[in-house]
From TrEMBL:
Species of the source: Helicobacter apodemus
A GO CC term assigned to this protein in UniProt: outer membrane
NCBIfam families: autotrans_barl (TIGR01414)
Annotated InterPro entries: Autotransporte_beta (IPR005546), Autotransporte_beta_dom_sf (IPR036709), OM_autotransptr_brl_dom (IPR006315)
Source organism, top-level taxon: Bacteria
PROSITE patterns referenced in this protein's UniProt entry, alphabetically: AUTOTRANSPORTER
Xref: SUPFAM superfamilies: Autotransporter (SSF103515)
Name by which UniProt lists this protein: Autotransporter domain-containing protein
Amino acid sequence: MTNEGIVRVGNEDLSNLEVKGAYTQKGEDSRLQLDFGRHKNSKLIAGSYDIQSGILEYIPLQQFFYSGEYVKIDLGELSNSIDKFTEIKVSENNAMRFEAVLDADKRTINAASALKSDAYNTPNSSIGSVLREIRNNQDLSENYRNYFALLDNSPNSIEILESIEGKSYLDNAASDANNALSATQQNMLFALNPTAVTSLAFNLKQKPQYVASVNSDSLTNTWNFLELNDKSFFWYLSPNYKKINGDGNKGYSSGVDLAIGKDFNEDLRTTLNLKYSNTNLDFNGSDFDSKNVNLGVNAIYDVEAFKLLSGAFVNYGFNKMDRKVLGSPDSINANYNNLSLSLQMGMAKDWELQDFTLTPLAYLNYAYYHQESFKESGMWSKEYDPINHHTTSLASGLNLSYNFGDTSLKHIVSGFGIYEYRLNGKTLKNEARFNDFITQTFTQQNELNKYLISLGVSYYLSFKDYFLSVSFVDELARKENNMKLSGSFGMRF
């Protein structure tokens, strides 16, 4: 046999290759690859050896090697030609390196295994050091030893590490934070002009302006579209559907919004929004089913030159998580709840030209997010500390509406754009630990979207005190691009 390329001997059974006659190896890049395990290695057995050049390479099997363990590799008859190879090497795997030293008997290589200092490291987490400490545990169970053997040798080790790390709960929290921004935008727009979903143009001290607008969640503004006369209450009901397309997550959300508003006098208006939604998301193998109920209260005060905006928002979420760790037979699941609170303060101004109305607005938003501690079950399951996170953002936007119609039917076509930028609290952090190794804690973190851009268009139709509307909203962020379709119906009373 003449080897001028690569000859691989052994595999899982560590069998030998027998050559009847001479084995010749030549060429600087030629390789003889022999597999080895903790207690045995494969050999190439030939009648004679003619080694002219090339590499002799020993490759570790998918076995668990303890760090600091010495593995003896029997050279066999190759020991007589060891000095003829250009290079002799013992290959490393994903986590272990082997330092090879020729024994004094000249027939044995002593390979000392050592865990790499950066083994199992992942971005935005300290889990690597914890996994290295776990791997060095001399009392590690057979199930975990077999799993580390898989992890150390798999070509998909990055994907396996990501599944062990399991940061999808932080991804879901980041999605919740975006939804909270979207909901507060909707509530603010509804308070400004509750009768046309996107219309921001309304002056409590003027005669009715038949204008409308689209908010970031549903067609809800119908306040000015209906004559204000002596009917100071307004309500609407809006079913909606959102398609979620994120960086590493896909899903949808469906729900219904109920809103009511009242003018107390020429200067003051208050509104109340009650929403329910059911969201299903897939984060690279982790499935989330979240049910959210939120309440928003807003007040608008007209001070002649502009309007003062204020709002408060509270959301309570019920989450069910199912995820899979690659290479593990167990399915990991957990249930946990979260709470969001936020406060808004800002101002808006109307400019009217015939049937067109342009309204700029700006407000500051403070938000608090709490996620309760929870515990998973299964191999590589974790226990998570509670999250308490504070953030502030600044929102500004424009709304343009055009109204037309006759005495009985009134129409509005409108559009809006709002840009909201997160001023601080851009990084969400939490601590966790594996249930089977409870003493070792590590930190995980996720970057929240720094901004949210909401762009919407709507069409609105009213007859007497009743109205119908439909809207489309596109939500753009660094990690998400969501599209929402909603309709609404309601009346004034």
